[in-house]
């Protein structure tokens, strides 16, 4: 047994470390079980009392992946195109627009970064164009004569900075939202990955992440002009709008609208069979589908509100929530867009503040505003939740800096009796009529808000505006029940697999099989210990990896035991056979495990998310199973054979 | 207990039939990879997938047509483990916000009392999908290359070539199986990131198995220098047979458990492993060794030629 002292120490140390590392995990799951058995009031009191302890154990416990505990994984992409447009200010032209479109298309498949793609697209569009014509900027030393390389470098720097800033802002917003252990990190040149364990209010998070928080104050165009434009738009679509044949998408859309209307009709009067037949007859007779919808696609989705031209009201009409996209599409059609006066845009209100439709769909106003921005969110120094003193409705109150306040005082002073429109991320929140000059820069944003919405608006306003719009390009949410089902299925498979393998080994190798089983059980303990001490996250594929390791872990022992059998058959004593078996099997064990380990390394370096989880457990499993097979089994067999003189059976 | 003790199977002569078996398997695999071809999951194609829990069972075909009628998009709907859980897929990717609402609204109005609830979402935009696809290809090729290199260093180039050909054989057969059956199984057999991980694990397992046999061939080649190489290989396979079958047995047992009770999410993954481990075990005996023998006979190492002429 000499020379085994170190091995014994190593096994003991690893055992203690593993148990130590796993202790918080066990504690945590016991806590959770206790908490689940309490009634809500008791639970709340207990949680409040032991908040620190509970948090400490849950932080030190083995982390579960989103697929097991539920939560949200979102990849956001920062809109580089929009950022370039902003940097170019109003110096854009057709070449710029065409290049931006081309670059966006190429970006889908290309590895190049967006700025390079854009620069190449500009060159392709109009060779020899100096990028500096769009991006002159005294602060960055970009003059009209700057070389394209210098401009590209400047733009790349700006994009990088925007990404860093976007990450920072999103971090602040998430922090205020209050998620435990969120993960926020940049990925590549334009993406930000956000992982929020345990979050189930997905919609709210999505709004919080995407909101650019661009707050602007606008005045409204003369009401008479707006009413005239609205009349023209309805007349335009009354006459058929875009040439239906020339625009296949328009007909397709009209078709689906017609089917929807038709099916809604047929369910409405299901007792009148003859009416259904009649409806069908009409359609098959080849009637123009748009006539089914009343002949005017705009009137079908937008209910016009005619107001007295002297009233100063900016309201154009009202739209059901589900129809807002269709209205935007109809208004943006080239023929229709011409009819909207220059410098005016039509925006929807944020909250459903015009009541609800018969089937519970919220109705929004369509409001005309001047595109010109009178005042920007940058002037805001503070924002906070507040209540309307008369109605007690939640509202957001904002405070402006000196420059903002004096400008705000000017605007409100000069436009008494007219509405001022407060727009956040292209949605109209409020358009109060100015009663008097507001001298101190303090203003309220009212709307059809819930208390929670007010908090979220305050959060985005306080963390500042995103440098460029972000969009969600990948999203993975796992609800708590799905996660729980996965944990159950995974744990059960793990236990059943472990037991079956152990039974098999005991039957096949008898005494030596039992020794291998001790090693196997220690191996599973060590894997979890290693995972916990490296702060790795256990995912469902990770659990699969552990089960696979259990199946493969016996391999090293099988190789050794088979060798020992061979040695014994050649007439050696048990002791010599054991020595020979271990040393001769070593080369095969090493080669077999190194190759599999290399695969784990590759999976870990190039894979993402759950695959990395799988790779980590696979690698951890290989290391621990090598250790248990070569050290633990050896120690036990040596002890039994040499110290106790037991005639260990190898099957 | 002992199985395959002191076996003297003549693998040498069965190599001929294994060429035929592998040839047929590869042919079927390659043909089904061309038609019907693999079905890319949303990881590599972009799209959105919802797991929808309902109070009452909704027939998946009816759900698909209701969703299709309401939106004009094509929806694929399958049962997810039990009739009260559906997996709903559509091609639109990225921002799943509007889709989610429309799926819940359509299902709840089309199937009264079903009370659908979204339990999970997975949505990938086209840009991410193309990135992931590229990564997956790099991953598989990278793994094969690293193994080629390792075996080349530890053994020699004949073994390395044989190992990589064997691995390609295994990967193609498993992929072929996915192509052939992806329309027929009740669970998903789409190729996604997790399946790529499974493929690499198969590569890892298969090479593990192959290397053990190689190791023994190399060992016996030094012991029985005058024996024809094919004999040596045969002897090596026979002596490692017990271990090969045993390890495959325990691993298959573990993976079978995973397939049967490991949950719906891992069905495709564990099936890939199940088939892959079976094929990998077969190939390390019947594919890898004959290739080594053939290469060895055709391109004998210099040292052996010297021994022979001495």
From TrEMBL, chain A:
<dbReference type="Pfam" id="PF02355">
    <property type="entry name" value="SecD_SecF_C"/>
</dbReference>
<dbReference type="InterPro" id="IPR022813">
    <property type="entry name" value="SecD/SecF_arch_bac"/>
</dbReference>
<feature type="domain" description="Protein translocase subunit SecDF P1">
    <location>
        <begin position="165"/>
        <end position="219"/>
    </location>
</feature>
<dbReference type="InterPro" id="IPR054384">
    <property type="entry name" value="SecDF_P1_head"/>
</dbReference>
<dbReference type="GO" id="GO:0015450">
    <property type="term" value="F:protein-transporting ATPase activity"/>
</dbReference>
<dbReference type="GO" id="GO:0005886">
    <property type="term" value="C:plasma membrane"/>
</dbReference>
<dbReference type="Pfam" id="PF07549">
    <property type="entry name" value="Sec_GG"/>
</dbReference>
<feature type="transmembrane region" description="Helical">
    <location>
        <begin position="489"/>
        <end position="509"/>
    </location>
</feature>
<keyword id="KW-0811">Translocation</keyword>
<protein>
    <recommendedName>
        <fullName>Protein translocase subunit SecD</fullName>
    </recommendedName>
</protein>
<dbReference type="GO" id="GO:0043952">
    <property type="term" value="P:protein transport by the Sec complex"/>
</dbReference>
<keyword id="KW-1133">Transmembrane helix</keyword>
<feature type="transmembrane region" description="Helical">
    <location>
        <begin position="514"/>
        <end position="536"/>
    </location>
</feature>
<dbReference type="Pfam" id="PF21760">
    <property type="entry name" value="SecD_1st"/>
</dbReference>
<feature type="transmembrane region" description="Helical">
    <location>
        <begin position="585"/>
        <end position="608"/>
    </location>
</feature>
<keyword id="KW-0812">Transmembrane</keyword>
<dbReference type="InterPro" id="IPR005791">
    <property type="entry name" value="SecD"/>
</dbReference>
<dbReference type="InterPro" id="IPR022646">
    <property type="entry name" value="SecD/SecF_CS"/>
</dbReference>
<keyword id="KW-0472">Membrane</keyword>
<dbReference type="InterPro" id="IPR055344">
    <property type="entry name" value="SecD_SecF_C_bact"/>
</dbReference>
<dbReference type="InterPro" id="IPR048634">
    <property type="entry name" value="SecD_SecF_C"/>
</dbReference>
<comment type="subunit">
    <text>Forms a complex with SecF. Part of the essential Sec protein translocation apparatus which comprises SecA, SecYEG and auxiliary proteins SecDF. Other proteins may also be involved.</text>
</comment>
Automatic annotation (TrEMBL), chain B:
<dbReference type="GO" id="GO:0015450">
    <property type="term" value="F:protein-transporting ATPase activity"/>
</dbReference>
<dbReference type="InterPro" id="IPR005665">
    <property type="entry name" value="SecF_bac"/>
</dbReference>
<dbReference type="GO" id="GO:0005886">
    <property type="term" value="C:plasma membrane"/>
</dbReference>
<comment type="subunit">
    <text>Forms a complex with SecD. Part of the essential Sec protein translocation apparatus which comprises SecA, SecYEG and auxiliary proteins SecDF. Other proteins may also be involved.</text>
</comment>
<dbReference type="InterPro" id="IPR055344">
    <property type="entry name" value="SecD_SecF_C_bact"/>
</dbReference>
<protein>
    <recommendedName>
        <fullName>Protein-export membrane protein SecF</fullName>
    </recommendedName>
</protein>
<feature type="transmembrane region" description="Helical">
    <location>
        <begin position="20"/>
        <end position="38"/>
    </location>
</feature>
<feature type="transmembrane region" description="Helical">
    <location>
        <begin position="245"/>
        <end position="263"/>
    </location>
</feature>
<comment type="function">
    <text>Part of the Sec protein translocase complex. Interacts with the SecYEG preprotein conducting channel. SecDF uses the proton motive force (PMF) to complete protein translocation after the ATP-dependent function of SecA.</text>
</comment>
<feature type="transmembrane region" description="Helical">
    <location>
        <begin position="269"/>
        <end position="295"/>
    </location>
</feature>
<keyword id="KW-1003">Cell membrane</keyword>
<keyword id="KW-0812">Transmembrane</keyword>
<feature type="transmembrane region" description="Helical">
    <location>
        <begin position="136"/>
        <end position="153"/>
    </location>
</feature>
<dbReference type="InterPro" id="IPR022645">
    <property type="entry name" value="SecD/SecF_bac"/>
</dbReference>
<feature type="domain" description="Protein export membrane protein SecD/SecF C-terminal">
    <location>
        <begin position="114"/>
        <end position="297"/>
    </location>
</feature>
<comment type="similarity">
    <text>Belongs to the SecD/SecF family. SecF subfamily.</text>
</comment>
<dbReference type="InterPro" id="IPR048634">
    <property type="entry name" value="SecD_SecF_C"/>
</dbReference>
<keyword id="KW-1133">Transmembrane helix</keyword>
<keyword id="KW-0472">Membrane</keyword>
<dbReference type="GO" id="GO:0043952">
    <property type="term" value="P:protein transport by the Sec complex"/>
</dbReference>
<keyword id="KW-0653">Protein transport</keyword>
<dbReference type="InterPro" id="IPR022813">
    <property type="entry name" value="SecD/SecF_arch_bac"/>
</dbReference>
């Amino acid at each position: 047994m000499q020379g085994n002292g170190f091995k014994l120490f190593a096994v003991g140390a690893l055992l203690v470390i593993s148990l130590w590392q796993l202790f918080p995990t066990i504690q945590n799951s016991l806590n959770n079980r206790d908490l689940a058995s309490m009634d809500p009031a008791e639970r709340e009191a207990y949680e409040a009392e032991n908040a620190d302890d509970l948090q400490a154990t849950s932080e030190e416990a083995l982390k579960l992946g989103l697929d097991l505990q539920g939560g949200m994984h979102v990849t956001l992409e920062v809109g580089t195109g929009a950022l370039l447009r902003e940097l170019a200010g109003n110096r854009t032209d057709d070449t710029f627009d065409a290049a931006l479109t081309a670059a966006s298309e190429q970006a889908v498949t290309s590895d190049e970064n967006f700025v390079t793609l854009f620069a190449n697209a500009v060159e392709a569009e109009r060779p020899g164009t100096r990028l500096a014509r769009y991006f002159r900027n005294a602060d960055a030393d970009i003059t009209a004569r700057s070389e394209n390389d210098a401009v590209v470098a400047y733009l790349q720097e700006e994009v990088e900075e925007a990404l860093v800033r976007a990450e920072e802002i999103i971090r602040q917003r998430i922090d205020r939202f209050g998620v435990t252990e969120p993960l926020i990190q940049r990925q590549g040149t334009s993406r930000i990955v956000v992982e929020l364990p345990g979050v189930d209010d997905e919609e709210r998070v999505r709004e919080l992440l995407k909101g650019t928080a661009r707050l602007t104050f606008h005045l409204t165009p003369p009401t008479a002009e707006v009413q005239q434009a609205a009349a023209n738009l309805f007349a335009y679509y009354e006459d058929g709008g875009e040439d239906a044949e020339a625009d296949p998408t328009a007909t397709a859309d009209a078709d689906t609208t017609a089917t929807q209307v038709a099916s809604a009709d047929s369910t409405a009067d299901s007792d009148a069979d003859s009416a259904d037949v009649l409806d069908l007859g009409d359609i098959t007779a080849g009637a123009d589908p748009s006539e089914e919808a009343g002949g005017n696609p705009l009137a079908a989705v937008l209910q016009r509100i005619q107001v007295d031209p002297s009233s100063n009201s900016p309201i154009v009409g009202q739209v059901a929530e589900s129809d807002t996209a269709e209205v935007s599409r109809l208004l943006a059609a080239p023929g229709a867009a011409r009819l909207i006066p220059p410098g005016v845009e039509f925006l929807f209100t944020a909250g459903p503040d015009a009541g609800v439709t018969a089937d519970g769909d919220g109705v929004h106003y369509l409001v005309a505003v001047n595109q010109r921005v009178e005042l920007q969110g940058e002037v805001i120094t503070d924002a906070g939740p507040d209540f309307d003193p008369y109605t007690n409705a939640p509202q957001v109150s904002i405070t402006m800096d000196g420059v903002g306040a004096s400008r705000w005082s000017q605007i409100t002073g000069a436009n008494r009796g007219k509405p001022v429109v407060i727009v956040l991320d292209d949605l109209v929140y409020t358009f109060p009529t100015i009663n008097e000059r507001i001298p101190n820069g303090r203003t309220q944003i009212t709307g059809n808000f819930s208390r929670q919405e007010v908090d979220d608006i305050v959060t985005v306003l306080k963390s500042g505006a995103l440098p460029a719009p972000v969009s969600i390009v990948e999203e993975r949410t796992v609800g708590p029940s799905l996660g729980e089902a996965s944990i159950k299925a995974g744990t059960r498979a793990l236990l059943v697999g472990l037991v079956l393998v152990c039974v098999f080994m005991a039957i096949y190798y008898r005494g030596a099989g039992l020794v291998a089983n001790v090693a196997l059980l220690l191996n599973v303990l060590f894997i979890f210990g290693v995972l916990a001490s490296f702060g790795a996250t256990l995912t469902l594929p990770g659990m699969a990896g552990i089960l696979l390791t259990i199946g493969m872990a016996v391999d090293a022992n099988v190789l050794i035991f088979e060798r020992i059998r061979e040695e014994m058959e050649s007439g050696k004593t048990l002791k010599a056979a054991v020595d020979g078996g271990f040393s001769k099997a070593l080369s095969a064990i090493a080669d077999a495990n190194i190759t599999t380990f290399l695969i784990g390394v590759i999976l870990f370096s190039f894979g993402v998310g759950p695959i990395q989880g799988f790779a980590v457990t696979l690698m951890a499993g290989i290391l621990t199973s090598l250790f248990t097979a070569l050290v633990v089994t050896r120690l036990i067999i040596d002890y039994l054979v040499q110290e106790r003189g037991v005639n260990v059976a190898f099957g | 207990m002992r199985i395959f003790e002191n076996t003297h199977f003549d693998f040498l002569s069965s190599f001929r039939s294994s060429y035929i078996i592998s040839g047929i398997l590869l042919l079927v695999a390659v043909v089904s990879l061309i038609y019907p071809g693999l079905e890319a999951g949303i990881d590599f194609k972009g799209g959105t997938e919802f797991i929808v829990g309902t109070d009452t069972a909704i027939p998946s075909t009816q759900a698909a047509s209701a969703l299709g009628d309401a939106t004009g998009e094509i929806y694929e709907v399958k049962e997810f483990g039990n009739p009260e859980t559906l997996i709903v897929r559509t091609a639109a990717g990225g921002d799943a916000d509007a889709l989610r609402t429309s799926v819940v609204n359509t299902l709840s109005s089309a199937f009264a009392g079903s009370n659908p609830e979204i339990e999970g979402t997975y949505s990938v935009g086209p840009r991410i999908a193309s990135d992931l696809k590229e990564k997956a290809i790099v991953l598989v090729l990278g793994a094969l290359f690293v193994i080629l290199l390792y075996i080349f260093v530890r053994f020699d180039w004949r073994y390395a070539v044989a190992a990589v050909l064997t691995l390609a054989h295994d990967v193609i057969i498993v992929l072929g199986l996915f192509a052939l059956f992806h329309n027929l199984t009740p669970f998903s057999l789409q190729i996604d990131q997790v399946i790529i991980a499974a493929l690499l694990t198969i590569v890892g397992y298969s090479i593990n198995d192959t290397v053990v046999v190689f190791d023994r061939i190399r060992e016996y080649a030094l012991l029985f220098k005058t024996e024809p190489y094919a004999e040596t290989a045969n002897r090596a396979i026979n002596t490692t047979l017990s271990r090969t079958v045993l390890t495959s047995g325990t691993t298959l047992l573990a993976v079978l458990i995973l397939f049967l009770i490991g949950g719906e999410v891992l069905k495709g993954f564990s099936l890939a492993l199940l088939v892959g481990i079976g094929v990998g075990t077969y190939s390390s005996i019947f594919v890898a060794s004959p290739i080594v023998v053939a290469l060895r006979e055709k391109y004998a190492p210099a040292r052996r030629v010297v021994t022979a002429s001495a």
